């Protein structure tokens, strides 16, 4: 009898586990493996999607990219500056097949330009109508470097996207680089690429755009991949790890090294190994005063019970070992800032972990005490100003309200001393937190969640006072 029962259990337990796995996969199938169909399209014989991306040397190199038609044609770039003759540079063609059609993208790398000059750039493709010229000036190595940090855009409405863009328009001329941490589009489809270029392309894309891929740029499947249009449009330096060239990369300025890590493929053991080894190397070899790492998924998520074990257990130790200054992330559609506690000195220090969102889509934030600053229910943008000794960080709501402010200062380094953490200065203690999330369902479950959220909010406000 006992033998029969044991034998039955031996088969019953695996059967229960198998049924549970099938149910779990059926519930997650659409999230992990299913893609919405893409409508067929044919690109016009017009030059569009003009994009400027920095080369590895921010002060001297730039890449210009564009789309034109569906068949490769002779293409080139003409650039000039005051008192210098025109220079003609051939462009490389890249034919990209997507689920909806075929595009041909072109790119040309302009290297070793004079950062004391302003350049006029014009692109040409045989048989395609022309575009307006671009004007570009480079940041000077000794001047303040001005960056703008934007979270997920992921817009589905053109008017809403342009409204948000108007809120940051006063910074266009003074911003050297735009840092965008993924989910630029809602889905990997031509229609959403069209929308983002019609809304923000005329401004952000033409002023040196620095992006990292998000999960909404991913084509799902058993072997998920980044939409091939992402890499064709954003031609970043090919200095990343094997298999991730142009998706993970770094760019340099005398004040900082900016590292972009593709966090979408860290669930594959071999790619995880390559990416972690590469990250360790590029942070360890940097000689700049400040280190900035940007990636889509955060080390310390702010959305409810969400967690990223690989990011926290494997990526975080590398960031903290190399005393990275800023870690910029998105994905959670809310704002959060967490400092790294220095247990020996009883003070906050680097890395400073940040999550931001520039999207109309908002998620419920958590209220863990690890977060020094929080924000939700609206869009945010951050301004970063760097010199060789200081980094000033300010975050605003879409309505121009300052909601976070801190400064990092580089200490003097003794001869032979390794990299030391920057000194953190809190400048935003008296600033209001904009916790405006209220997108709860109207049913009983939604009402309970709203009540719990409001109670947690009251507790946070009382603790701050």
Compile the SSE list and pairings.
Layout: H1 2-33, E1 48-54, E2 62-67, E3 75-80, E4 87-90, E5 92-97, E6 102-110, E7 118-125, E8 134-137, E9 145-150, H2 158-167, E10 177-180, H3 190-201, E11 209-211, E12 218-219, E13 225-226, H4 228-233, E14 249-253, E15 256-261, H5 269-284, E16 290-295, H6 309-321, E17 326-329, E18 335-342, E19 347-355, E20 373-375, E21 380-386, E22 390-397, E23 402-409, E24 423-426, H7 444-464
Helix pairs in contact: 2-3, 5-6
Descriptors:
alkaline phosphatase activity; 7-stranded mixed beta sheet; 465 residues; Alkaline phosphatase; alpha+beta; Immunoglobulin-like; globular; 7 helices; Purple Acid Phosphatase, chain A, domain 2; 24 strands; 2 domains; single chain
Would you kindly provide a written description of the structure presented here, covering whatever features stand out?
This protein has 465 residues and is α+β, with helices and mostly antiparallel strands. The chain has 2 domains: 89 residues, Immunoglobulin-like, CATH 2.60.40; 286 residues, Purple Acid Phosphatase, chain A, domain 2 (4-Layer Sandwich). The chain has 7 helices and 24 strands. The strands form 5 sheets. The protein has a 7-stranded mixed sheet with strand order 11-10-9-21-22-23-24, with no helix packed on it. Strands 14-15-16-17-19-18-20 form a 7-stranded mixed sheet, covered by helices on one side. The protein has a 4-stranded antiparallel sheet with strand order 1-2-6-5. Helix 2 runs parallel beside helix 3 and helix 5 runs parallel beside helix 6. It starts with a helix and ends with a helix.
